[in-house]
Amino acid sequence: MRVCYTPPVTFRFELTHVDRESGARAGVLDTPHGTVETPAFMPVGTHGTVRGLTPEEVREAGAQIVLANTFHLMLRPGVDLIGRAGGLHRFMHWDGPLLTDSGGFQVFSLPHLRQVTDDGVVFRSPIEGSEVRLTPERVTAIEEALGADIIMPLDVCLGYPASQEDAEEALRRTAMWAGRARAAHTKPAQALFAIVQGGFDAGLRRRAADEMASLEFPGYAVGGLSVGEPRGLTYDLLAEVTARLPAGKPRYLMGVGVPPSVIEAVRRGADMFDCVLPTRVGRNGIGLTPDGRLNLRQAAYADDLAPLEDGCPCPACRGYTRAYLRHLFKAGEMLGPRLLSLHNLTFMARLVRAMRAAILEDRFAAWCRGVLDRYQTAW
């Protein structure tokens, strides 16, 4: 099955195969800075860096595309400096595909510092307290100046639970702001995705998906999930949305990085994911393995001379034992967090590659059952 969408200039998504039994998708995303094979996991480089790692290490770990945060980069070091450096790719020394989110999640996580109207958001900078005003037009202009390959419009994010009234309002404003962002968008080489909100009501999610699909964006993100709601609800709402989005355009589930959740989301038609989890837990001594999380701070690994994961090609598994990695964390050595972060990114890259191979060979449903059964008691 091949469903293609070719927007102007250099952004293109090709849906190359859909698994016959499960409906999981494999595709190819072409951007000005390279190609991304989907399903794809995006490491998070909030401040223009994946914490503790060089861009070369991130690439060697298997990452195809990195996410950076517009909100934080706008506040520090500032868009003007990044522009003078030649754009965010050059500034952070990453030559691959790059996605910037709008910063909407960060803005809405500061309720004591912000005021929201139909025009946009006014908030106090959490860094030095000055007043900052964001509108859909200004966020789009900032992201165009940063120069990412994929950019997100300003949206309204809700936590769990959310009232029907708040969800209705988030849907309305997000849709309105998406239209204004699209009207302000001037650089066709950058793909502006729409974001589907709607809280935790299936009817509102369906309505939001229909509204966004009618606007014909080159790609669609699903926001406002994995924010504290039960995982079953996350999967059900995602399925409601993906069933109504155009088949030939990429679908990005925002903020999801727990391996079983990524697998379940692919099973429901999602293509792209981002999350800080792999590197954040790595910095705290936790490695991702096919059996679940392995906490190297536990005394059980003090004399364990096995690698973190047999067969893993990452530097942590090639050259070091569990006992040595535990020693690094107990001694406060910075090498420990770096090695575990590299391992966890490598694990996620291998996971999505394995999913892609299973989809292309029409065996994803069976692969999925086997992998999730192995995780079942560990997550």
Description:
With 379 residues, this protein is α/β, with parallel strands linked by helices. The chain has a single domain (3-275), classed as Queuine tRNA-ribosyltransferase-like (TIM Barrel, Alpha-Beta Barrel), CATH 3.20.20. The chain has 15 helices and 18 strands. The chain has helices at 55-60, 70-75, 79-84, 88-92, 104-108, 136-146, 164-184, 202-214, 231-242, 259-267, 277-282, 315-319, 322-331, 335-360, 364-375, and strands at residues 3-5, 12-18, 25-31, 34-38, 40-43, 66-69, 98-101, 114-116, 121-124, 131-134, 150-151, 191-192, 194-196, 220-222, 251-253, 272-275, 286-289, 292-295. The chain has a five-stranded parallel sheet with strand order 5-16-15-14-13. Helix 8 runs parallel beside helix 9 (231-242) and helix 13 (322-331) crosses helix 14. The longest helix is centred in the C-terminal third of the chain and has 26 residues, at 335-360. It starts with a strand and ends with a helix.
By DSSP (H or I, 4+ residues per run), the number of helices equals 15
Helix content range: 40-55%
Estimate the mean pLDDT confidence: 94
Ranges where pLDDT stays below 50 over 5 or more residues in a row are 1-9
